[in-house]
Amino acid sequence: MMKPGIGSYDKFKQMFEKFSAEAGKKQYLIPYFIAAHPGTSDEDMMNLAIWLKKNGFRADQVQTFYPSPMATATTMYHTNKNPLRKITRASETVDIVRGDKRRRLHKAFLRYHDANNWPLLREALKSMGRADLIGNGKHHLIPTWQPLTDGGYTSARRKNSTSAPVAAKAAAPVRLAPVKPSKGRMLTQHTGLPPRDNGSGGKPISKPSSRKVR
């Protein structure tokens, strides 16, 4: 995504917190991450998950990369090449995240705290030779135990919101009483005047004939 390294974020975070404190304002900095971006390896996502846990980030909603028109990342996705460098037959290939399982894995690394992702992460960490990140300590990424989960995902917003009733009865139509005009007040159909009955019975209304005034 042509973004600088994580060190640039750390420097900006220090400046942000410093000047926010000097201004006497309580402001929050929320970084933006995306899963399964072209050029991202499984090790990159693992290191990002470790960084997220170290800094106390728990992403609620995570976006997964989707190739869209007129984007450099889309060119990388379809060609397996880096368009920011000179492309030749011998140019380097870019790691592209394809397949449902691997895309879910990258998303699971960003949501390392979700128990529904722990079985997938355990399998991946063992195959990557990083079983040392599986444990029940603070320095571990995911625990060894597995709670009972339904396999679904409920966002924090949904948890804090009030669920609507499943079957709500249809409300009876409200009939407004006719409004009597008071002296000096003009009523329209928007302010209480009922629709007028023109007596046409659905027939088109003919325009009144114009009269000449002498």
Distance between the termini: 81 Å
Radius of gyration computed on alpha carbons: 31 Å
Give start-end ranges of low-pLDDT stretches.
none
**pLDDT averaged residue by residue:** 81
Task: Write a structural description.
The chain has 214 residues and is mostly helical. It has a domain of 113 residues. The protein is built from six helices and two strands, in the order αβαβαααα. Strand 1, helix 2 and strand 2 form a beta-alpha-beta unit. Helix 2 packs parallel to helix 4. The chain is elongated and about 90 Å long. The termini are far apart. The relative contact order is 0.09.
In short:
The protein has 214 residues and is mostly helical. 30% of the residues lie in helices and 2% in strands.
Pick out its properties.
6 helices, two-stranded parallel sheet, 214 residues, mainly alpha
How are the secondary structure elements laid out?
Elements: H1 6-22, E1 34-35, H2 42-54, E2 63-64, H3 72-79, H4 100-110, H5 118-127, H6 156-160
Parallel strand pairs: 1-2
Helix pairs in contact: 2-4
